[in-house]
Design a protein that fits this description.
The complex is a heterodimer of chains A (about 475) and B (about 40).
Chain A: H1 11-33, H2 39-44, H3 51-62, H4 65-78, H5 80-87, H6 90-106, H7 113-121, H8 123-156, H9 160-208, H10 211-221, H11 231-250, H12 252-260, H13 266-277, H14 280-285, H15 291-294, H16 304-313, H17 315-353, H18 359-381, H19 395-400, H20 403-411, H21 417-437, H22 443-461
Helix pairs in contact in A: 1-9, 1-17, 3-9, 3-13, 3-17, 4-5, 4-17, 5-11, 6-11, 6-12, 6-13, 7-8, 8-9, 8-17, 8-18, 8-21, 9-16, 9-17, 9-18, 11-22, 12-17, 16-17, 17-18, 20-21, 20-22, 21-22
Chain B: H1 5-35
The chains are: A mainly alpha (about 475), B mainly alpha (about 40).
Chain lengths: ~475, ~40
């Protein structure tokens, strides 16, 4: 995969596409950034994001480079259940829909997921949650930065360091210029590009190969891919579902959007985004099932998608895949940069270092933090330590431990700080043990189960009667 | 239990159909938001 000779697109074409998109995204970042007047405008797009942009940003952020590249790989390795299992990642988006509405109702002045944990569970649970959230966010940033460099190199032969630097720099610049407005605005365009791209590839595959040929060749050469009872695929399906739910429930990427959407938009936007997301891994992934019919020899499973596209469409197909992957990477990277900077700004800087900071100071700091996050990610990604790319594998244990403390905190008055703290801590520890003893595919499952048990027991034993109005507190600069 | 050609084609065709519709719906919603001045 990392051999320049195996690149499916000329490096010069790759540079031209990168240059073109750099100009467009940065100009749009500047254009939308002009309208951002205050801190709320910069961080939360004025809390006024409409339905179309709301649905698109939720979809685009959840369509990462993983979805477009790993979906064909999973179909190639795990068959039909591989792509269907990946589709279950959408369950997290759909389940978050009612939560987004409740979050907006309970915290009309909230900025981050950390705000909720602090007001609901107190300082120590908040700090534990921040550790989990920030470790996860940095891990995701690193994996996306590395994926950017690796994919650009694999598709075009452009050196890993150059590709990684370019995509990170573009995303940092337009996020600094335009804040969440730039992120959500570009997400809309990126969503359209991704959807049109995967549909074109899918229709071409159906036209060129056809289902009959695809099925008969699979049956002859790789019948296991048509097996609906493949055990590894079914286990992957459940772990992927819980990992996805944990990622979405705790991550500020999704909370910041719940705060940023108009009052009546959150529920519908997340629900529709979830429904629209379901078919994407199937459409992007099923083309891999055409490899036996096309007579393709696939040396590395993670390049199966681009190889099928190049076989069917030649240079045009390779360009299409490059644009899809680039859009998918940028739409997730920018969202993560913005949401993580919000968390660092509100919960670390304002919460622990400078509670007296006013809006103007915070807005300046937000830009500095985005820049710093970009630089830190770049420095960690630069040496290309391959083990870092699998960093997210064990994060399932961390994020799944937050699912039930968050649900409990949003819906049960009796959910309490001790229970939430213990649930996150014990879920993470036992999940990590399961990760080491059994395997990555059970880390999230075990963590969520332990965390659920602790949360439920603590709720049953508690006499707490939380006052929801405490969450409506507006955080002012203290003097 | 092996998936039949009918099963395979059904899930792919349904998935493609939803994916074709989704950008169209998104663009229509964008126009609706734009007309109602509710984009941002």
């Amino acid at each position: 995969m990392n051999n320049v000779n195996s690149a499916i697109l000329d490096a010069n074409i790759g540079w031209m596409i990168l240059a073109g998109f750099s100009v467009i995204w940065i100009w749009l970042g500047w254009f939308w950034g002009r309208k951002a007047k205050g801190l709320e405008d910069f961080m939360l797009a004025g809390r006024n994001v409409g339905m179309a942009l709301g649905i698109a940003t939720a979809m685009a952020t959840w369509v990462t480079s993983n979805t477009t590249m790993v979906a064909p790989q999973l179909a190639f390795q795990l068959g039909i259940w591989g792509m269907l299992g990946y589709s279950l990642g959408s369950v997290g988006l759909m389940l978050f829909a009612p939560m987004a509405r409740r979050i907006r109702q309970l915290l009309p002045h909230g900025y981050t997921s950390g705000d909720f944990i602090r007001l609901r569970y107190g300082v120590w649970t908040w700090r534990l949650f921040l550790v989990i959230s920030l470790v996860y966010a940095i891990g995701w940033l690193i994996s996306l930065g590395m994926a950017g460099g690796v994919l650009i190199h694999a598709l075009t032969g452009i050196e890993y360091q150059y590709g990684m630097t370019v995509i990170l720099t573009i995303c940092v610049i337009y996020t600094v210029l335009g804040g969440l407005r730039a992120v959500i605005g570009t997400d809309f365009i990126q969503t359209i590009l991704i959807l049109v791209g995967v549909v074109v590839l899918a229709i071409l595959t159906i036209n060129h190969v056809g289902f009959e040929d695809m099925h008969s060749n699979l049956l002859a050469e790789r019948p296991e891919l048509l097996n609906l009872l493949m055990p590894a695929a079914i286990m992957f399906l459940f772990n992927n579902l819980l990992f996805g739910v944990g990622e979405i429930f705790h991550s500020n990427v999704w909370w910041s959007r719940a705060f940023a959407f108009r009052k009546d938009v959150g529920f519908k936007a997340y629900l529709i985004a979830g429904i629209f997301w379901v078919p994407i891994p199937i459409v992007a992934g099923f083309i891999a099932l055409a490899t036996p019919a096309l007579g393709l020899n696939v040396p590395a499973a993670d390049m199966v998608g681009p190889m099928v596209a190049a076989k069917l469409l030649g240079v045009g197909g390779a360009i299409l895949v490059f644009i899809i992957v680039f859009s998918a990477l940028a739409s997730s990277l920018d969202s993560l940069l913005a949401a993580t900077s919000d968390l660092v700004l509100q919960d670390i800087y304002r919460g622990h270092i400078n509670p007296k900071a006013d809006d103007e100071k915070l807005r300046r700091m937000a830009k500095i933090i985005i820049l710093l996050l970009g630089v830190i990610t770049w420095l960690i990604c630069l040496p290309r330590v391959s083990t870092l790319a699998s960093l997210l594998h064990f994060m399932g244990a961390f994020v799944a431990s937050t699912i039930f403390p968050i649900i409990g905190g949003l819906y049960w008055k009796r959910a309490n700080a001790y229970g939430a703290f213990l649930a996150m801590l014990s879920g993470t520890i036992v999940g990590l043990i399961a990760f080491n003893v059994i395997g990555f595919y059970v880390a999230a499952l075990v963590s969520a189960a332990v965390s659920m048990l602790v949360t439920l027991v603590s709720i049953m034993m508690s006499k707490a009667d939380f006052d929801w109005t405490m969450l409506k507190t507006k955080r002012e600069a203290r003097s | 239990m092996i998936a039949s050609v009918g099963f395979l084609s059904a899930i792919v065709v349904i998935a493609v159909a939803i994916t074709v519709l989704s950008p169209i719906i998104l663009l229509l919603l964008w126009v609706k938001d734009w007309k109602g001045k509710k984009i941002w």
